[in-house]
Amino acid sequence: MAQQKIIWTRIDEAPALASYSFLPIVEAFTRGTGIDVETSDISLAGRILAQFPDRLGDDQRIPDKLAELGELTQHADAAIIKLPNISASVPQLKAAIKELQEKGYDIPDYPEKPANPEEEEIQARYARVLGSAVNPVLREGNSDRRAPLSVKAFAKKNPHRLGEWTSDNKARVASMEGGDFYGNEKSVVARADSTLTITFRGEDGSEKVLKDGLGVLEGEIVDGTVMDVSALQSFYRDQIEAAKSEDLLLSLHLKATMMKVSDPVMFGHGVKVFFSDVFDEFGDDLEAVGVNPNLGLGDLYSKIEKLDADKKARIEDAITKQYESRPRLAMVDSDKGITNLHAPNDVIIDASMPVVIRDSGQMWNADGNLQQTLAMVPDRSYGPMYEAVFEDCKKNGALDPATMGSVPNVGLMAQKAEEYGSHPTTFVMDADGTVTVTDQDGAKLYDHEVHQGDIWRMSRVRDIPVRNWVELAVTRAKATGAPAVFFLDELRAHDANVIEKVKAYLPEAGGDEIEYVIKSPVDAITYCLERCRRGEDSISVTGNVLRDYLTDLFPILELGTSAKMLSVVPLLNGGGLFETGAGGSAPKHVQQFLKENYLRWDSLGEFSALGACFEHIAQTTDNAKAKVLGETLDSAIGRFLDDNKSPARKLGQIDNRGSHYYLALYWAQALAAQDDDADLKKRFEPVAAQLTENEQKINDELIAAQGKPVDLDGYYRPDEEKAAAAMRPSATLNGIIDAMR
Ligand SMILES: NC(=O)C1=CN([C@@H]2O[C@H](COP(=O)(O)OP(=O)(O)OC[C@H]3O[C@@H](n4cnc5c(N)ncnc54)[C@H](OP(=O)(O)O)[C@@H]3O)[C@@H](O)[C@H]2O)C=CC1
Ligand SMILES: O=C(O)CCC(=O)C(=O)O
Ligand SMILES: [Mg+2]
């Protein structure tokens, strides 16, 4: 029997800490089963170092693991467990660089405004690390995210609290009325393989090729669109006025980490419009010290340190005055005075909007109180869908997690589909003119008139991913009996082309055997919510952006968190990518851990991903032990949920580490109790006995560690030994696990 490898990714922040405790358990349990668990470092720090082999010593250099994993996804035997990693904004990237430099790695500073070819080259290397740089490389398949049945049943039995909604709630979502990506989109389906060129022609007749050599395949949908920034600015101005007159808290919701080229610029316009008096009066000074509004108010504060004390004080005064003339601004951390406009990475719409809905349309204000918000989601491709949820809640009240149906998602994601793959073809315009897309014969696909500062972008999706996505939707609808709800808007150019493909591929995929509807995102979500309220499930079948948004929205409403989701990516070439949960890397959890040695991270996503991975290995290889490992893990997870052994939220109770102990206990007991594999039974009988006997002692040791600060000697690249020691404080548990390894 060939050894099967599971790759376990090493990443950042809370889930990385959790791995120090959970991974030794996984290694111990799989030993001797024909399955090897190997780690692969794709953390932000690891990816930065991999860009600079030429500047690092032999003992410092690390290989480009992300490239290796990208290559692996093309093979049928790929089995990758992908934990959430940081998609770095520029401020996060700079912080990570600083930490690595302090640790003795001779890497260059990030050049914000490259001044020469050498700096341009450095910036290009860092660009490979910036933003959502990992997921698009590994996601060589479409997405199947859902709450495992046991998790949904647990949530119904133990419903979390959702804030009330009444019809007089004034919270609302505002989107632009025109000039946005939605309104300007043009879309064509390639009739043959070709190579495209994107050209800018200035009004003065000058020409610049923005990108050439863009290979497209027959059947590929190729979109071009533009965000008119003067329309965006006036949208911001209007909403600032509206929030003020309606006495609402103002908030902005974008995805600056993932949409790393367009959204930081849109965020920056928000900063500039909100603080327009400051930028009008002190524009030259701010420019002189390199303030970049796209990096937020936090960057402004750090850069004005370079000005003389008097100037700095005047700018700070102007900011204070500006707050007085503006509506109140939503806060990310009201205790620390961190606003919604401080850092682009704190504005992450998939996580922020569900919390607004959970909290009755409210966000935190500067006094530390919840207040109803005017949520700005500029682009109409997405904003109106959230507004429909607000409307539904105002009309029908909050949803009820004890009874509501489930909305899993099938998302079109493979091969860098749609907007999320558009970073290399997104451009901020230097001047007024026209952007034209032509094919290899010089024939024009479409053009757009643009103005200086506008954001033009091309997004694409190939035919094979669309076909596979339709098949996956049918598979899930057949498996569950729930209808497939295609979120597609015939008024949007891109969606209209996708609708044609869906209609063409559904019959051959077995569409006549399932119930399905095709509706605009607004109508589709309203339809799903109606069904939810009747306790009925619906499968949302969406493009890549709505995949991201809905796989946080419904889990947070249904389960209280997206951490408990099963997130499978069947790779187009037969392998499996198993993502853990649907949320991020929870920086807040690390802060709490450092302060009081308590890690709230819930590893249920890791448990479910591992279970799905064993199941995949059992189905695709002749390894019978994988099947036993998978089945026993599944029953252990069921027991774990029944006994409610997820981390609590407060000190003195079991945290992430305690939850790992209980999973190991139940898993060992299930392995000892099964009769399908005598070897495993024999191996796990004594282990189960030891873990059972020592329950009190292990709990005592784990809880005794809590309550004092922890030093990990680093945030982006913590000291391995310190982190492992901090995450494995029970000598008794370590003794049992290490004896098995
Ligand atoms: N797949 C990936 O690689 C992803 C990466 N990211 C990255 O993660 C970072 C942080 O993003 P952010 O949007 O703030 O999202 P996070 O999910 O990290 O934080 C939002 C909140 O989600 C809850 N949460 C998420 N996962 C868990 C878990 N396993 N256990 C318990 N609670 C959980 C917590 O909420 P509460 O306090 O309400 O319980 C948490 O504070 C960014 O760098 C972002 O780019 C984001 C999404 C996916
Ligand atoms: O890639 C990223 O930056 C975030 C991914 C994400 O939020 C998701 O897939 O749900
Ligand atoms: Mg997401």
Overview of this protein structure:
This protein has a ten-stranded mixed beta sheet with strand order 2-1-3-24-23-4-15-22-20-21, with helices on both faces. Strands 5, 10, 13 and 14 form a four-stranded mixed beta sheet that branches. A four-stranded antiparallel beta sheet has the order 6-9-19-16. It contains 27 helices and 24 strands. The longest helix is centred in the C-terminal third of the chain and has 19 residues, at 624-642. With 741 residues, the protein is of the alpha/beta class. Strand 13 and strand 14 form a beta hairpin. 45% of the residues lie in helices and 16% in strands. Magnesium ion binds at residues 350, 548, 552, 582. The site of 2-oxoglutaric acid has 9 residues, from helix 19.
Topology:
Blueprint: E1 4-10, H1 13-30, E2 35-41, H2 44-50, H3 65-72, E3 79-82, H4 90-102, H5 117-127, H6 135-138, E4 143-146, H7 149-157, E5 172-174, H8 181-184, E6 186-189, E7 194-202, E8 207-216, E9 221-227, H9 229-245, E10 249-252, H10 262-274, H11 276-288, H12 297-303, H13 309-325, E11 331-333, E12 338-339, H14 349-358, E13 362-364, E14 370-376, H15 383-396, E15 409-411, E16 426-428, E17 433-438, E18 444-450, E19 455-461, H16 463-480, E20 484-487, H17 493-509, E21 516-519, H18 521-533, E22 539-542, H19 544-559, E23 566-570, E24 576-580, H20 587-596, H21 604-620, H22 624-642, H23 656-673, H24 678-693, H25 695-704, H26 720-727, H27 731-740
Parallel strand pairs: 1-2, 1-3, 3-24, 5-14, 10-14, 15-22, 20-21, 20-22
Antiparallel strand pairs: 4-15, 4-23, 6-9, 7-8, 7-17, 9-19, 11-12, 13-14, 16-19, 17-18, 23-24
Helix pairs in contact: 1-23, 1-27, 9-10, 10-11, 11-13, 14-19, 15-18, 16-17, 21-22, 22-23, 23-24
